[in-house]
Amino acid sequence: MRKKGLYLLLLALVTALLLTGCGEQTGKQEGKGTGKVGEQVNYKIIGIDPGAGLMKATDKALQEYELKDWELVEGSSAAMTAALKKAYDKKEPIIVTGWTPHWMFAKFDLKYLKDPKGIFGEAEAIHTVVRKGLKNDQPSAYAFLDKFYWEPSDMESVMMAVAEGKEPARAAAEWVAKNEAKVAKWVEGIKPVNNKKITLAYVAWDSEIASTYVVANVLEQKLGYQVELSQVEAGPMWAGVAGGDVDGMVAAWLPTTHADYYKKFEGKFEDLGPNLEGTKLGLVVPKYMEIDSIEDLK
Ligand code: PBE
Question: In this predicted structure, what is the pLDDT of residue 107?
């Protein structure tokens, strides 16, 4: 009787151990993405706002790599990073549309999927674009916008502060205070104005929230402007500057990402050139996923 009980207990223990072992293995396989990545992520790529050039590039990638079963999910930058964080915390597989500069690469261990067909383009630059006539109407703002140029690491530090919960205006003000010398060069020799109004358009991309609030802070604090920020979609941002309804923006990704908008409105705006160089776009996954190329999604 006692022997039988012991035997049964042992059997139960061994069975339990075996089951746990098997369960663990399955879990591991799923998390690491061996086999069918598509099934693990329901053939979904988590996108951002539909007007983003990144979304058009991803649509093109789905075609060019013949990923017929796949769906690009529209949303927003905020929804994308929220989905990424949720999956990452649980070590679950996820594929998102991503770009650099972005705080997510500092917060999470991520990698770009290789893009052998070059659909997402080479490194490009973010340009400052203003309405025609701004040079005459608002020479001080124009001179500063023309001068505005910073490094990816500058933008990232503002982005990071916002990602960690700071109000964008506060994060921008703190960055400006910490970078006196750089800011002084941007406004050197420019005459401040007395409370003139100026409107900047931007899209709620984390990178552009950072740059736009920094530029607004400098216009207000160093040059005496009263800045109105207009948060819109990418199409209306370009249309606003081209139509003269807004004075300018610092969010034009060129020559590739916003090529359509650039062509559509060509001749109706003034391109002041790069304010940041060395960007990148693509499909991004956590490093714990065992895929390396967009081709692995087939
Ligand atoms: N982005 C960030 C934008 C430009 C800035 C890469 C998401 C886009 O795709 O249009």
Answer: 97
Ligand 1 contact, 250 CB (< 6 A): no
Q: What are phi and psi of 205, to 5 degrees?
A: -85, 140
269-277: strand order across its sheet: 226-231, 197-202, 248-254, 125-131, 269-277
Ligand 1 atom at minimal distance to the Cα of residue 54: 9
Ligand 1 pocket member 262 (CB < 6 A): no
| Mean predicted confidence (pLDDT) in 274-285 | 98
Instruction: Tell me the per-residue pLDDT of 175-196, one tens digit each, with 9 for 90 and over.
Output: 999 999 999 999 999 999 999 9
Tokens for 109, please give them.
């261990």
What's the CA gap between 142 and 274, in Å, rounded?
14
Which domains, ranges and CATH numbers included, belong to the chain? Answer: 27-122+283-297 (3.40.190.100), 124-279 (3.10.105.10)
* Top mutation candidate among 281, 283, 284 for ligand 1, by most atoms within 8 Å of CB: 281
Cis peptide before 255 (omega within 30 of 0): yes
Contact indicator for 175, 161 with CB cutoff of 8 Å:
yes
- Residues 261 and 119: their CA atoms lie apart, in Å, by 18
The per-residue pLDDT of the chain, averaged, comes to 92
For the segment 61-89, the average pLDDT, to the nearest whole number, is 98
The pLDDT confidence band at residue 35, using thresholds 50, 70 and 90, is: low
